[in-house]
Amino acid sequence: MVRKIQAEELIACGKKVKKDNEFKKMVASKWHTLKTTEKAKFFVASPEASNGNTKQRGNRNQSPTIYTRCSPHRFQQVVSQFSEEQIAAINDMGFGTLIQLSCTRIRHDLCRFLIDSFDTDSSSIELHGKTMEVCYSDFKQIMSVPEGGSTVDLRGSIDEPDMKPLLDIYIGKSGNITIPSLIDKLEGANAADHNFKVSFILLALGTLLCPNTSTNIHLKYLLALRNPENIRHLNWATFSFEFLLDGVQLFKQSNSKYVSGCVLFLQLYYYNVIGYGRTLVDCSKPIIAAWGEVESGKLIK
User: Fold this and answer.
1) For residue 279, how far is the Cα from the chain centroid?
2) Which residues pair with 234 in a beta bridge?
3) Number of C-alpha atoms within 13 angstroms, CB side, residue 259?
4) What is the pLDDT, as a whole number, of residue 206?
5) Element (H, E) at 124
6) What is the largest CA-CA distance in the chain?
7) Mean pLDDT, the chain cut into blocks of 10 residues (301 residues total)
8) Among 140, 147, 148, residue whose Cα is nearest residue 286
9) Distance CA 100, CA 102 (A)
């Protein structure tokens, strides 16, 4: 449960504890600045959650499952074959921790529960009766992707002259970028050149960070990848989080069974909050590396 923030903290800030709108706004502002692990200190799972029962409002078992193209298993299979040189190149781009991914299974029922509990308008999630704000900084902390100062800019046209070299490399006969074609390129790459870097980012977007409801990857992603040296300076955390917000919102508004976005983030967010304070994971590791199948299996029995 969310504990009351101690009055002493608020008085130290020159504020009095009052149950009014000003106090609520101040608490919300303070809450927004906390990291996920800090938020978890104020959260205690109900006995039902400790037993792995994630039922909420009585509707989890009644809700149909979801389908997602978020595939951590596929991603991990590919990156596990990379050479030391290629891993070093990924580190240079700021995605080195991402390839330490341990959780390779999407729990569809759990993700459906989390999506049903996620309010995209307020960017908050209700877990076992308690509401927690979720923001791009949580995505950064959990998924360990760069949070550079520049926006991932997809404006422009792929028909621009300087796009032709990339289009010639990545678009096949179908006129699309497919995940199998990217895997072929990565598995056949002997060096960690620009093409390797672009292929890796496209794979990460298509299988983990921003998977859509299609089997193809958005061509416009190439607009942001024209200069591979600039990749680490882009704000991929915000871009991916907003993509998830849009995907969940569209899913709730439509009759589709497919949801776009990184549902793995929601799953790991849940693990990290519910499992906080237990001796289930090695807290010295990044969250994305700490929660594997064994650890999550102990939490979700």
Assistant:
1) 24
2) 150
3) 25
4) 98
5) strand 124-127
6) 66
7) 31 39 49 51 40 40 78 97 97 97 96 97 94 96 94 94 93 88 94 95 98 94 95 97 98 93 97 79 90 89 70
8) 140
9) 6
Helix (H, G, I), strand (E, B) or coil at 132: strand
Contact between 125 and 114 under an 8 Å Cβ cutoff? The reply is: yes
CA dihedral 195, 202, 265, 213 (to 10 degrees): -170
Contacts within 8 Å (CB) and 24+ apart, 160-163: 162/226, 163/222, 163/223, 163/226
Q: What are phi and psi of 205, to 5 degrees?
A: -65, -45
| Cα–Cα dist 112/139, whole Å | 19
pLDDT at residue 242 in the model: 98
Q: Nearest CA to 214 among 259, 156, 168, 265? A: 259
3-state class (DSSP) for residue 276: coil
Contacts of 231 (CB under 8 A, 6+ apart): 93, 94, 146, 197, 201, 225
Question: In one letter, which amino acid is 114?
Answer: L
The set of residues, in sequence order, having a beta carbon less than 8 Å from that of 293 and lying 6+ positions away, is 102, 103, 104, 105
Nearest CA among 274, 296, 156 for reference residue 222: 156
Please report, as a single letter, which amino acid is at residue 198.
V
Cα 271 → chain centroid: 13
Alpha-carbon span 249 to 123, nearest angstrom: 11
Q: Where are the domains of the chain?
A: 34-299
Instruction: Give pTM, 2 decimals.
Output: 0.79
